[in-house]
Design goal:
5 copies of one chain form a homopentamer.
Chain A (H helix, E strand, L loop, with lengths): L2 H31 L8 H28 L4 H24 L6 H23 L4 H21 L1 H7 L3 H16 L3 H12 L5 H29 L2
Helix pairs in contact in A: 1-2, 1-9, 2-3, 2-9, 3-4, 3-9, 4-5, 7-9
Chain lengths: 229, 229, 229, 229, 229
């Protein structure tokens, strides 16, 4: 049907536009959720919503760059990630805090690790730093975050929560474990195999990114909505 | 009067612009409705509103593509549908849940079916897959959704609800039965007869799409507003 | 002072931009009004606000078309009217309903008549139908709406309301009687005299349209604000 | 540093962009203020906020016109003023009404005078009318407004209010007296001296306009916030 | 990977886009925070949020200027600063006021000093005034602001507050001391060394500006959220 448009350039643009609409819708849904959820769930929910909104803004930039110049610039992805990924990590912290007291030091360490994870990846991609070393550094910060979520103070506190809270924490953590693995994997594909700009890779990448961006916010919304009853 | 503008290219652009304004207005109306409806109706209402908003964003893209390139790309329609149709199906689930407890498994099965329905249709149209097979697969997922709504757990629960709830469910289900039939029909017209790009077909199609996008959200709003009293 | 800009093309663009700002401001004022008005007035107020917002979107399209192509297309006006005029009629119904029970059949008949009124006018202007016949049909639907408002169930119910309600209903009805007369009149000017595209006519027309779009929403807001005390 | 950009064309664009950001920020601040102010102050506050928003929209138009065509069109200023100045006058009325009952006739007379003040100025500038006569007429309506505010029913009512209300009314009235004097003065400079398009004049003019647009809304917000305690 | 895009022009654009997304997200987070914070913290929080929003608007202008003309104009920075920096200073005042009564004279003196600080810097950069003198004047106003915050009425009042309030005030003051030092330093780099337009300098500058814009608003949000319990 619209074959020409699709094969010539549209796989990427439909992936981008779809992600844009999906992340923006998620953000609005989280914001509206503030009107029916319990007060103590509002902080993680607001953070999840703002993270989705920041993703939408990032993809808005990426979409317009693509439509005008047919380029899938990583720079625009980073501009969103600097806000999105620390916010997601902070949302995890406040998610756990809604159940019980998590030491505030965890928040600072995790926020710093999330920022440094994005920043070191950025420095590598931008060429200010040895790309391989930067990628390894970024992975190290990511592993630190996983360590906090698996063996730190949070799992003990979450374990005392309701079933919904425990399940929600389990899934968010899983996405941050498996889903975020796409970023170092893509980096490898991109640098070693050198096919990071192919339409298929960009579309697949965007799909994984979409899942990483959407689901944690939606899980927070789902848990917060259930905890109300 | 504005004959030239209309006949040359404007049937499509006025259909698009009208749909854009109508869906956006519906979204805003649903969001405002959150301020006067009962708390247990807010989840389906918020979802209906966000579905209308995502439709508006999709049509915003379609309108600008049309105005700049005179093309009625299906790709942009899909970018909205990936968000809109699963959200509408989820809104139906939460609509029924506002009356009584619907097993959460229904939600997961229906959401997955809705996503796969759009996705298989997309793969066919984009040419990644045999178009006929993709269309049949998409119809199968749609029939599964109808099955859940006609013979699953939901109708039993809704039957215990008030008259407004029963009527609302009846109409939403009817739209998802008759209205959504337009998508496979158009696909047939498009592929077999090959006239899917003609202005008249696009305008007619948009009209049906508009009804599918608007009415479920407005029905949720109407039922939620009546249940308040 | 800015003579050249004004005489060359700016009467229309300043009429358009002024209408855009005025309708958008009205919409925002109505939405904010939801925070201080009584709950039973929120439905007509929300509808009045959304009608103003849809007008603003329609004029946004008209303004950008004018600025880029110097054309005052009717197509863009219609794209807004399809949403605005049924919403205004529905707002009148819910305005009356806030005072006492109006049969729901009135709502369906009036909404249908409002939609058909715009649709038949559109078909005539777009040339799908005999323009004179379409215009007459459109006038017939309009007269039906007036009949419902003057001799139907609503005036009896409104008569039992407070002074503010009665006065508000009187004025809204008057605008829908006198103000809406501009649409068939302009059509006559346009088709018979053929001067519908002259700057002065477009500006005058926009002025009347503005009054039709603004005042009903503002009247609903004014009545709702007074009924609070 | 950015000398070239500044001297060549940027005094106007930085004045415009600064006004745009300042008026929009004021609008948002007033809207947020609705969440902490007392219910009876919400009407004037909402009006002040919408007036600031309408100013921002007007300056958005002016800024984009300037950036694309390097013209400081008065037409776009008027498109905002038609909404802004009547709203500001109405905000003054409701400001006084929050303290005690002001006859509703004052509202109608002042709103009409504000509309006619802008309209007669517009007709003169657009060349539909003798510019000098139009300017004099506009001044007459302005003097009428001042008369209502100094010798009408409002000052008596405000005098019974708290210190914050009295002080607020004093300052708003002062701005409407001294600040609004810039409009006839500029008109004189423009027509008699003929330098109304010089960058310096436009920038100075915008600065005064900014003060007129911002301060009344901020004063309403300040008074409403204090009256809460 | 995207080497060309990065090295050629993208350090600045990714710094700008990142700042845009981060400031906008902060603004939304502060606005949402109004729904869970205590009423007396809403004024400083709203101001912090609006300051972040005004920053976002300023960077929106800067980003689009950069993308279209590859220029890092200071004019657009100033257009935001005129709103942002006085609002931040006002937020500090209302932050202290949420704890105890701070004389209103402090507010007026600090607001005036903040406005004059930006204005004198602007006059120097725009070349209306001796740049060195203007910079010195601007530094003088900044030192005055620091004086009020270190030795004025505010520290005494804040000292009586909770630990969170004291800590928050300490950090905001620190940012206004160390962070704002970047503005005179950059001015020196720019004028004396003359490398203010180099990509690296603009990016570094934007990074510091980002910290100055974000952190005070986030600190207000954090303190307000803790004071709730």
């Amino acid at each position: 049907m619209f074959g020409v448009l699709y094969t010539s350039r549209d796989v990427v643009s439909s992936a981008y536009a779809g992600t844009l609409i999906a992340t923006f819708s998620t953000a609005v849904l989280c914001f509206l959720g503030l009107s029916w959820t319990d007060e103590r769930w509002r902080i993680p929910l607001a953070m999840g919503g703002v993270a989705a909104l920041a993703s939408a803004l990032g993809y808005l930039g990426a979409t317009s760059l693509w439509l005008t110049e047919q380029k899938a610039s990583g720079a625009i992805r980073y501009s969103g990630w600097f806000t999105v990924q620390p916010l997601q990590v902070a949302a995890v912290y406040f998610f756990a805090s809604a159940t019980g007291k998590v030491p505030v030091g965890v928040f600072w360490r995790m926020s710093a690790a999330a920022l440094l994870m994005v920043f070191s990846r950025y420095l590598g991609d931008a060429g200010f730093f040895n790309p391989t070393l930067a990628a390894l550094l970024s992975i190290a910060f990511w592993l630190y975050l996983l360590g906090e979520m698996y063996f730190g103070a949070m799992p003990d506190i979450v374990r005392k929560g309701s079933r919904a809270v425990r399940l929600g924490f389990f899934w968010i953590r899983l996405i941050l474990t498996i889903g975020w693995a796409i970023y170092p994997i893509l980096h490898f594909v991109d640098v070693v195999i050198g096919s990071g700009q192919a339409s298929g890779v960009v579309a697949l990448y965007t799909l994984f990114d979409l899942i990483n961006l959407l689901t944690p916010s939606l899980i927070v919304l789902a848990v917060a909505s259930q905890e109300r009853y």
